Amino acid sequence: MMPNRVPSWRDNLYHRLLFKHCSLCQLPLTHTEQYWCNHCISHFPTLPYCQHCGTTMLSTVTNCGRCLSNPPRWHRFYRLGEYRPPLQQLIHQFKFYGKFWLAQPLALQLAHQITDPAPLLLPVPLHWRRYCLRGFNQSQQLALALATILNSQVNQHAFQRLRHTPPQQQLTKNQRRYNLKHAFKLHSLCLPDHVAIIDDVVTTGATVDQLTQLLLQRGVKRVDIYTLCHTEKSLN
User: Fold this and answer.
1) Of 154 and 163, which is predicted with more confidence?
2) 3 state SS of 38
């Protein structure tokens, strides 16, 4: 299994020696570029979006029309971009191909978007069966990397996944909500007024909505969402 930690200096040295070329375009990297060249980073799909729900907009807005009529439970949504190339490929490598070290450079790009960091970061949990299959929790790795950049703390065990549910990818929004009913538990612990939930990809928001509800019921005043990608799908 992969360790629950931010990559060490040995990991960073290994990747400095291995990745002398951009992993996306294969062009040589400069001494200031660690993983991807600035040209490829400029093509990350960082479009304007609603700061409440994360939906792509023509310009950045605090609340879109949907949020004005039916706002999400959480307070602020921070994302790196849309779930399309090249971020899509990077997240697939990070999540499904065991490249856990990608958490650090991806977190660095995401951190540029976060203007008011939460003091406590809470990663979305995996069920133990899926954890055993994957070897690590990608949201946990992302939270640990973000915490070192934002000077925040991480509680890796605040949430527990109680049920092993089917994958969410092919489910509709209503099916996702039913799929996640009573799937999570928030352990008794002292929480600050402001926390952030960390997930690698948010589609309908069903998972982070369930976790936000648990936090608000516990008395948390502000819940933010930090994610790498928001998928622009209309799932009913």
Assistant:
1) 154
2) helix
